[in-house]
Predict the structure.
Amino acid sequence: MSDLARNLRWSWHAGTRDLFRSVDPERWAAAGCDPVRLLGGVAPERLAELAGDRDFLDRLDAVAGDLDAYLTGDRWYQAQTDRLPAAVAYFSPEFGITAALPQYSGGLGILAGDHLKAASDLGVPLIGVGLLYRHGYFRQSLSRDGWQQEHYPVLDPHELPLDQLEQPDGTPVQVTLALPGDRCLRARIWLARVGRIPLLLLDSDVEENDPGERGVTDRLYGGGSEHRLLQEMLLGIGGVRAVRAYCELTGHAAPEVFHTNEGHAGFLGLERIAELRAEGLDFDTALEAVRAGTVFTTHTPVPAGIDRFDRELVARHFGPHAELPDMEVDRILRLGRESYPGGEPGLFNMAVMGLRLAQRANGVSLLHGHVSREMFAGLWPGFDPEEVPITSVTNGVHAPTWVAPEVFRLGARQIGAQRTEEALSVGDSDRWDSVADIADQDIWELRRSLRELLVLEVRERLRASWRQRGAGTAELGWIDGVLDPDVLTIGFARRVPSYKRLTLMLRDRERLTDLLLHPERPVQIVVAGKAHPADDGGKRLIQELVRFADDPRVRHRIVFLPDYGMAMAQKLYPGCDIWLNNPLRPLEACGTSGMKAALNGCLNLSVLDGWWDEWFQPDFGWAVPTADGVGTDPDRRDAIEAAALYDLLEQRITPCFYDRGRDGLPDRWIEMVRRTLGLLGPKVLAGRMVREYVERLYAPAAHAHRAMDPDAARSLAEWKARVRAAWHGVTVDHVETSVTGATAELGSTLGLRVRVGLGGLKPEDVEVQAVSGRVDGEDRIADATAVPLKPVGAPDPEGRWVYEGPLALDRTGPFGYTVRILPGHRLLASGAEMGLVAVPSEDVVEAAGLLMR
């Protein structure tokens, strides 16, 4: 049972949790459904009794056998024919695996936890790397007047589902970082087993450290700049060292791909460069080798959300008297320099470093990919944002973690437990199609039972919250009437930065009150969320909402629940009918809470941002219209969008929920639930997301890593240096076509002839392209297609080359083209990689800009 408790698969495997619950149901609930705490407190007599219970032992054998088969059997990854990475190292500052291991603050950590779980289900050989925070993030309560209070309980690793990584002789494995002033930062390594995935968590609270260094891993996102810098150095540099130690001790395959989840772990690239420097490679060669096998994911849609440090602070922590002593500090600083218009040269930007150290990068939804390309376009001067080499992989959620047991049981009745489990973990539209066969009555009874469970949960949590706020039992009788299992229930729960607009629903309080208290079609709202401890603005938003919810007129219809976390979320998502999300578009990178709600048959009501912008259909829910045009001031924008939200609730959503058909069921609502489950369900899975990472990013990165041996990396680095030095002499001098006049017919083909100067480079060093496409109102080419042209003959006496090629006029409407020159090398991931491009001068553009109107 100890082995079962120490593998976190129990957090998403119902059979294992049921086994532990049967040991002692009351103690299981008191332990927060944490098997480690349960086993630590169960009476020896009870264990002896279970040891003689044949039925229990049979169940124990079955669950243990199931775990063994899960850990050792082939899964999706092992069935692929492509040469996939032997291992992938996945670095993140936070991981939300289970409430029993509170090492997360919000969406980034929950996403990272879901990524690990889905990788485990698919058999992807991932190694997770993070930090172990002794106080986690923080626990939240409210004062009597509704102000957020923070509490930092101390976590003892020995009471968590963790094992210390040890040498064969039993001594703890440590990693060490050098600090200025001949100091050291030491950290031990704790191992969490997330199904098949090892998660390594570094902990600086060791006796050998001075008090300041012991506190480096005290809190998630706490402390000042130097504290954060040390955390991120430990995560990135110490994390690579921890991975090396783990692989050496266990025989785990060494990672071929390193995945940096947000910029916090970006220093991992520096450590890998230092490793190759120690093998005799120069900096530029090592940089190319490291870039080839690195993937960087950005989750931040605004520059203000990126970690940036003072250059002098960074410089002090690297070099001869600190960490990475053999690496030139200036080369490190250049990696994070904001060397683009509008950048601040005195700051070191972690996301910029992450992009420069990774050959492949992505945002976390289609819209966020577009926003990221715009935001970081300065790193690739001369290229339109759509050509910036940042793709997107839309986030997903780990369904076995977030789907309520009641929903799972309904699916199991329909297609069997095994097929339901596979549909949730791997994803298969055929299995999800079976939702269409579930009877309307079964869907409606499921939704009501989930709502009823939420009502009971809310009352219990609300009563506990009011007691923390100082209320006596005699004051709290009203809580027994809070919420109604037959009333349309809206959920809103997330972090509370200003852009998520927690209080948009309060914009017109009388109108909201009318909605809450409508005599025939009332709504009820459950709200939760934490503000960052340093964000007084966020705390004021919480207080504003709490004070409204405290009003005796409406407090039975709207509640704020403090201490939002995984345990609460797992009850909240299934029990709501509507999941509300109203951020300022496009500031929500993805926003996965609505995905978790959807997997339980909850409909989404959201601004078209993040994932909802990508997958919204009227079948699945409602889109809140946005007023994000240029010139709309923030106050007016909030007023317009709040009014649109009220209109949707009054005119479309509540009638759909309350209008009944001849059988007494809300037929339109049930059909929307059915379509949400059957059509949206397979898309929002973390299994789909991880498969995309494997196929689109990990596999290409592994191929690039293998191709980039020291000789290839050295050759590429030397070639890049030569190209950069010569690029000022690369020019497009003349463009002519095989037709004359300003128009041409659809379907015809032009012959292009271009004369270029290569500045001492050779044709094999470049690619000359004809770029064509539809022309917008400002005569810019949109939806461009690039076609390579070929050199003809030898250079002329002036050293100019002639390139030729066809150009098909294959689109109706305004059509145009131009010519450009890019660096060309087989080991580049894209033509934009170096940020170099040569285009015609203005007089040549006139000749090249043939338009078909």
User: Anything to note?
Assistant: The longest strand covers residues 183-194. The domain at 405-684 is CATH 3.40.50.2000 (Rossmann fold).
